[in-house]
Each structure stands twice: as structure tokens, then as C-alpha cells.
UniProtKB/TrEMBL annotation, chain A:
GO terms for molecular function: iron-sulfur cluster binding; oxidoreductase activity. InterPro entries: 2Fe-2S-bd_N, 2Fe-2S_ferredoxin-like_sf. The keyword Oxidoreductase applies. This is Uncharacterized anaerobic dehydrogenase. Keywords: Oxidoreductase. It comes from the Bacteria.
TrEMBL record, chain B:
Keywords: Oxidoreductase. It comes from the Bacteria. This is NAD(FAD)-dependent dehydrogenase. The keyword Membrane does not apply. Signal peptide: none annotated.
Length: 82, 429
């Protein structure tokens, strides 16, 4: 489980354990808010289990991916919306 | 991108304790079994595996059984619709997967109930199980100050886990009154395995105040959580913290069952003694049939697995154990029933629907969720009411009446999935 991967969060390289989810990697990289709500409030993850969609980000060009349900992969391009 | 088709005798949705137990039992009876789960790995909520997590021996042996029984696991795929009777569709990173089955076992588990209060939308205010899940999946919590709040035994499990990982758990605020919690505690003698579990947790909770009859009334902070105001009796006070881990017990994930036309009672999937739903080829096991803890989920899974494989005799042998676990479930749910005062937590300005930013004040004039939905878009965002639905049921008694596909938002090209035009790759379960 000690394998590490490097992904890019808003263009910045971040190295985390390969068993990390993208959401955990985002919080570790101090991105506290991951998106803005429809009225512009900053929002972070709520449920951690794929239900609330508050953790959604753009991954490798695909928008609205729930970062708490996706494991980090080498070279992944993650974009927050804040 | 391609579409993948799978065929099996027994299809299990959900790879938590209930789904794993069901799958291993059905497979041992000679059935071809596939488990589909939204999570990349099996284990469900309680046995979510991640960085450096030690597995409980109970989990390890069930994982081994499932492997040995030759069950196929498809992770990272969420079921969003049915194509026709006997065939479900799931979306994964590589496109749509189609599953045809003879028998279906729904083991979709439960989620936390969130209640709106001023400030609950601030970053770093999370579910109790929510923060635990994030820590299990790589978030470091060492030296962070955490207030754990809400209701249910999950709060103790979460607090113990966070502490084990080096968090500074400042206090646990349990909304249920002291007398009810004490009575429940005394009754645990009837289920020694639960008592033992509690004692194991307490080792990690040494020195952490467990305040009954206490709940958060407001979270403060500019861009993220900085402080929380707690209430206990007439006393109100503020606590500075990095995280508020707050969930008010659990609610069943019944949406998939409802979409398939299975009946529900009080928000839980109705089942007969063999765990069969109102649709005879569909079974349901675990917390989707009602919140009851891991032992009940396991036994229900075993019964559903045997029954779906046609081994009713074996299923019947487990009825007594299920009865005992169900008694625990009713004691649990009675003890952690939500108190009336929590209905007053949200103010007119408090956001109730986080997807569409609908505030409580905008909802007052409506008498049903359907009416409110049409006028305010409440519950129409990507979570499709999974968060605000449980809150509105508690606040106003509104119930979700109709579930429409897709169950989760899916990419347009997957929504328009047409099996006749696919370049199909058939895999046998
Ligand atoms: C966030 C959370 C944390 C918890 N932590 C603990 C704990 O630490 N200790 C404890 O004793 N109990 C805990 N519980 C209680 C726990 O849920 C039960 O004890 C037990 O895990 C229930 O098992 P289950 O198999 O019924 O459901 P679950 O374990 O919830 O498994 C259900 C599975 O179904 C999957 N699923 C649901 N819908 C779909 C779909 N449409 N498509 C694909 N997959 C789907 C989910 O991803 C999930 O993996 C927790 C509950 C929650 C909600
Ligand atoms: S945090 Fe709720 S879906 Fe990811």
C-alpha cells in the first residue's frame, strides 16, 4: 500500500498514496472548498460516500466527477471549480 | 469507450457486509454471482478499505470466502436504471455496463441523515461517517480538532477511529437524552458482542466528553469552519475546531428498490421472511431494509443469498439469529430517535437543498415536496434529494413519492444508451 502516485491539482503536482481518493488528495493539498454552489458559496465534501455530490470536480476533462469515489491515478488532471 | 454486457444467475448491488454475505452464500450454492458497487473496492461503509487500514478479522474472512466462492466484483460502477425486467444498467469510468440476471439482491445500505442548521454548508462541516470515510481514504487528521455530533452509535465509532488516527476529538454531542441512552446501554447485555465492541471503542475514547442531550446549533467561519455553537439544556457555548463531523443517525438507501417498483414502508424496503421484496425475483438485505447494524446486515445477506439460490431450508435456519439482531435494531432506533427541538435548528435563511441553494423560508408556503420542487427546484440537483429529502421528511413530514430514472446523473451519451446499436463485448459472470 506504500505505492505513491503524482497527480495534478489545478496544475500543481501533488504526490499521495495510491490508495487515496481524489477527494482526500484535494483536502491534503489544502483545497478546502472544491466547488462553488449555484449562489457562489464555497463548498467542500459532506458525505464522503458518493451521495451528496458536493465533492465534484473535473477529472481528465470529465466534469462533475465525485472525487470521493475515485482513486488517484498517476498523471491525473484534477480541476476544482473555485 | 465501449459498452460491456455481463450475464449471471444472481446479481448483487452493493458490496457491503450484506451484499458480500449474500454473494458468498449464493455462489456456494453453485450460482454465478456478480457484485456491483459504486465504490472502487468492496467492504461497504463499515469495512471501507484504504491507506493503512487494518481489517477486522470478520471482514477478512468474509472477503476470503467471497474470493474463494468465485464471485466477480465490478467496482466503481453505479447502477442508474433498468433496461427492462431482468437487466440493469450501471455507469463506470469506461462507459455503460449492462447486467442481466435471474435473481437480483439489493444490498444498497444506508446513508447518514443530515439536518440543516445555520452554517452547515461551510467547508469542513461534514458527516460523521463522512469525515471517517475521508480519513480512511487518505485524509490525515493528526492533531486536528474535531467536534463529533449528531446521533447514534456511529458517533462513537467515528470518534474512536479519528482518535486512533491522531485527531484531537474535543467532545461527542449526542442529541438523544441521557435516560434513553442509558437504558439502551443497559440493554446491551442482551447482545454481548455489541457490548464488547463498545468496550473496545471506549479504550480510544478515554477522556473524551460524551454529552447526551447536546447538539450543534450553529457553525461559524468565513471561508471554512472555525467554531461551532453547542446547546445543552439552557446552556449555549462556542468551541473552536477544525472539523465538525455531524450526522443524525442513518436512513436506508431505498431509491433503487423504489425505481424497480419494490414497496417500501417508512422509507425502508419491505421484505418477507426470505428477504424477498414485493417483486418476487428481487431480494433485499442489509440496511436498505432498515437500519440495524452490521450483524443484522450479515444475517439478512446470508438469508437472501440462500433464498435466491433456491435453498430455503438453509435460509430458515438463520431466522432465529435474525430475530435477535432485529430486536437490537428496534432498541437502537428507539434510543436514537430525533428530538422535536431539532426541527427548530434551521432558520428561514438556512439553506436546505445544497444543490440548488434553496432556503427554508422559500419552502414554507408549500404543502408537498412535489409542489416545492416545481416552484423552487428543491431536490432537483445532482444529489436528487438524497440529502434534503431526509431532512424535509423530518422537518415537514414530506416523503419522496416517485423515483424517476436515472437514479444518479449520468453522462448524456450513457443516458441515451441503446443496446441494439452497441458494439457488444459479452462477458460471462
Ligand atoms: C458513512 C457511514 C459510515 C459507517 N461507519 C460505520 C462504522 O464505522 N462502524 C459500524 O459499526 N457501522 C458503521 N456504519 C453503519 C453500517 O452502514 C452498517 O453497519 C453496515 O455496513 C451496513 O451494511 P450494508 O451491507 O447493509 O450496507 P453498506 O455497507 O452501506 O453497503 C452498501 C453498498 O452499496 C453500494 N451502493 C448503493 N447504491 C448503489 C448503486 N445504485 N449502484 C452501485 N452501488 C450502490 C454502496 O456504494 C455501498 O458500498 C456506517 C454507515 C455509514 C452510512
Ligand atoms: S462527498 Fe458526498 S459525493 Fe463525495
Amino acid at each position: 500500500m506504500s505505492d505513491e502516485v503524482t497527480l495534478f491539482i489545478d496544475g500543481v503536482p501533488v504526490t499521495v498514496s495510491a490508495s487515496s481518493t481524489v477527494c482526500a488528495a484535494l483536502l491534503e493539498a489544502r483545497a478546502i472548498a472544491l466547488r462553488r454552489s449555484v449562489t457562489g458559496e464555497p463548498r467542500g465534501p459532506l458525505c464522503g460516500m458518493g451521495v451528496c455530490f458536493e465533492c465534484r470536480v473535473t477529472i481528465d476533462g470529465q466534469p462533475h466527477r465525485r472525487s470521493c469515489q475515485i482513486l488517484c491515478r498517476e498523471g491525473m488532471d484534477v480541476r476544482t471549480d473555485v | 469507450m465501449y459498452e460491456t454486457a455481463h450475464a449471471c444467475d444472481v446479481l448483487v448491488i452493493g458490496g457491503g457486509p450484506a451484499g458480500l454475505a449474500a454473494a458468498s452464500h449464493a455462489a456456494r450454492c453453485g450460482r454465478r454471482v456478480i457484485i456491483v458497487d459504486d465504490n472502487p473496492r468492496w467492504g461497504g461503509q463499515i469495512w471501507r478499505r484504504g491507506s493503512g487500514e487494518d481489517e477486522s478479522p470478520q471482514a477478512t474472512s468474509l472477503f476470503d470466502e467471497v474470493r474463494r466462492a468465485g464471485v466477480k466484483f465490478i467496482g466503481g460502477a453505479h447502477v442508474f436504471n433498468q433496461l427492462q425486467d431482468g437487466s440493469l444498467l450501471a455507469e463506470a469510468a469506461d462507459g455503460v455496463h449492462r447486467f442481466s440476471y435471474e435473481k437480483l439482491i439489493l444490498a444498497t445500505g444506508a446513508r447518514e441523515r443530515f439536518l440543516p442548521f445555520p452554517g452547515w454548508t461551510l467547508p469542513n462541516v461534514m458527516g460523521a461517517g463522512g469525515l471517517q470515510a475521508l480519513v480512511k481514504s487518505g485524509l490525515s487528521i493528526r492533531r486536528r480538532r474535531v467536534v463529533v455530533a449528531g446521533s447514534g452509535p456511529l458517533l462513537l465509532a467515528v470518534a474512536a477511529h479519528l482518535r486512533k488516527r491522531g485527531a484531537e476529538v474535543l467532545l461527542i454531542a449526542e442529541q438523544a437524552p441521557r435516560a434513553r441512552v442509558l437504558r439502551f446501554g443497559l440493554r446491551l447485555i442482551e447482545w454481548p458482542e455489541k457490548l464488547l465492541h463498545l468496550m473496545r471503542l471506549q479504550r480510544y475514547l478515554f477522556n473524551v466528553p460524551y454529552l447526551t442531550g447536546c447538539w450543534p446549533v450553529m457553525a461559524h467561519g468565513r471561508r471554512k469552519l472555525e467554531r461551532v455553537t453547542l446547546k445543552r439544556g439552557a446552556r449555549l457555548w462556542e468551541v473552536a475546531c477544525d472539523y465538525l463531523a455531524c450526522g443524525f443517525h442513518l436512513v436506508p438507501n431505498a431509491e433503487l428498490a423504489q425505481l424497480l417498483g419494490c414497496e417500501t414502508v417508512d422509507g425502508a424496503v419491505w421484505v418477507d421472511e426470505l428477504q424477498r421484496t414485493s417483486r418476487p425475483e428481487i431480494y433485499c438485505a442489509g440496511e436498505a431494509t432498515g437500519v440495524g447494524g452490521v450483524e443484522l446486515a450479515l444475517i439478512e445477506g446470508q438469508i437472501a443469498g440462500c433464498a435466491a439460490a433456491g435453498r430455503e431450508d438453509e435460509a430458515r435456519r438463520l431466522f432465529a439469529a435474525r430475530q435477535r439482531a432485529r430486536r437490537f435494531a428496534s432498541a437502537l432506533n428507539a434510543a436514537f430517535d430525533l428530538r422535536e427541538e431539532l426541527r427548530e435548528l434551521a432558520t428561514e435563511e438556512t439553506i436546505v437543498c445544497r444543490c440548488e441553494d434553496v432556503r427554508l423560508g422559500q419552502l414554507r408556503e408549500f404543502d408537498s415536496w412535489r409542489a416545492a420542487k416545481l416552484q423552487t427546484r428543491c431536490g432537483m440537483g445532482p444529489c436528487q434529494g438524497r440529502v434534503c429529502g431526509a431532512a424535509l421528511e423530518f422537518l415537514f413530514g414530506w416523503r419522496v413519492t416517485s423515483i424517476r430514472p436515472p437514479l444518479f446523473p449520468v453522462q448524456l451519451r450513457n443516458l441515451a444508451y441503446d443496446p441494439s446499436s452497441e458494439a457488444e463485448r459479452v462477458e460471462r459472470g
